[in-house]
Amino acid sequence: MDWGMKNRLSQLIQPDGRCFFMPIDHGYFQGPTRKLEKPEETIKPLFPYYDALFVTRGVLRACIDPVNTKPIILRVSGGTSMVGKDLANEELTTSMEDAVRLNVAAVGISVFVGSDYEQQTLLNLAKLVNEGEKYGIPVMAVTAVGKELEKRDARYLALACRIAAELGAKVVKTYWCENFEKVVNGCPVPVVMAGGPKVETDREVFEFVYDGLQKGAIGVNLGRNIWQNEHPVAMIKALRAIVHENVTVEDAMEIFNTR
């Protein structure tokens, strides 16, 4: 692996082998998502606690201070919206040259395995990996499922993650599920967990994050379950403790309730 590629990955994956990514890219298909209407205000109190920010180039340029920031994972796929016909009909939206200009640590792209646009999104990934290797920029593949939440089972996610790794993704973002070890064990590159829709209780978030880490994930890429929480700073502190300090669910609950 080239020095530049190794250097960028080391910015994302911390010395303990874990990572905590904060996604605020939801607006590229959802518009002004609740609590993310003003991204700069949302992330300001959370800044000390995440390791990297997952964001589009528009919000990065408009809202993120270039003087004082964390490593950036740049969202480079899109072209659909919640009111469109199919969220899977994505294309590449951002050139690798622009990613270089923005000095990002990685780029991220969604793939929709099993959808009508499976081949299109997988070839998007392959093309992006080719460009990433040329410039020394790692690619994170996101195993998206659109509105079809029932696809979040171990068999499907293991398939999607393995294909993404086979095509050259350096990191794969996927959903936690029952028997999550089957997903991780079949993926030869690091796996990070997505948060998905906001859950009913704070404990549920702590439980799936803890379980996924025990079963081999290296970290999380959580957004809505943090910044849509009524106490986002307490939430991110508790989750960071699970990821980087190996605390239990009970310990995380205590951190959350105390802070």
Main attributes?
16% strand, 8-stranded parallel β-barrel, 259 residues, 42% helix, alpha/beta, single chain, TIM Barrel, two-stranded antiparallel sheet
Description of the structure:
The longest helix has 18 residues. Helix 8 links the parallel strand 8 and strand 9. This protein is of the alpha/beta class and 259 residues long. It has an eight-stranded parallel beta barrel with strand order 1-2-3-6-7-8-9-10, surrounded by six helices. It has a two-stranded antiparallel sheet with strand order 4-5. The chain is built from twelve helices and ten strands. It is globular and about 45 Å long. The chain has a single domain, classed as Aldolase class I (TIM Barrel).
Provide the fold topology.
Blueprint lengths: L2 H10 L6 E5 L3 H4 L8 H5 L8 E5 H7 L8 E4 L1 E2 L12 E2 L3 H6 L4 E6 L6 H18 L3 E5 L10 H13 L4 E5 L4 H6 L5 E4 L7 H13 L4 E3 L2 H4 L4 H14 L3 H10 L1
Helix pairs in contact: 9-11, 11-12
Give the amount of beta strand, in percent: 15-25%
CATH class descriptor name: Alpha Beta
How far apart lie the N and C ends? Answer: 42 Å
Strand element count: 10
- Helix count equals 12
Looking at the structure, what is the overall shape? globular
The strand line-up of the biggest sheet is 1-2-3-6-7-8-9-10
Low-confidence stretches: none
- Compute the CA-based radius of gyration: 17 Å
Helix/strand/pairing class, anyone?
alpha/beta
Helical amount among residues, as a percent range? 40-55%
CATH architecture: Alpha-Beta Barrel
